[in-house]
Amino acid sequence: MNPPIRWFTFAAPSRFYWLAGALNPWLWASTVALTVAGLYVGFFIAPTDAVQGESYRIIFIHVPAAWMSMIVYLAMAFWAALGWMFNARMASMLARALAPTGAMFTFLALWTGALWGKPTWGTWWVWDARLTSELILLFLYLGYIALVASIDDVVRGDKAGALLAIVGAVNVPIIYFSVDWWNTLHQGATISLTAAPKMAHTMLAAMLLMTLAFWAYAFAVVLTRAQALILERERKTEWVRQLALTRKGWQ
Number of folded domains in the chain? Predict the structure, then answer.
């Protein structure tokens, strides 16, 4: 009989620290490989768009970044809520580790969207529903980061941040469905689970490669940041002291 799966094994910060350390080299290597492949296919193999010309190629960065901005926020809200409900330290640390990465993806989506909007719409910015709600998402990320950093008591900071993250999660479906609910300048979904893709196969391949690259990067940088948070919060524990002694011995 197979032993039962212990789902909460890595809820302990010490175990999660070693798991992150084991995964990170593979995640960083995957990030580099997938990014190189995605950019090569997107910028050198994918055909020129018949309507937008070469400017459309920014979608290979813009669209995956926009997807990640929403996914990372939902993950942050999930871990923050889990930490709040069950007083799970590791979950709260993961929420904090996710926030800067989500903010970066949101800023990247807004920036590349402006670069794409200028040749396509003739302007850098319009206050349409999707752009405005994506900008609100950036403010939510920055607000969460500022809130948890402003409270000296980490437990109180985690709870306050969790409340903000959970309330702010309502903005994610607004971003996603804004093109269906309102008349916006954004086009509808190009890729759907229920319909054939509306782009050439090489374009789709580049988009998926860059999406996987962003996923690998998100995992890698979040796990790296989580390790730093673990060492900071657990610095008075015996295992962290032993780790520090071991590292001094290597030097």
Answer: 1
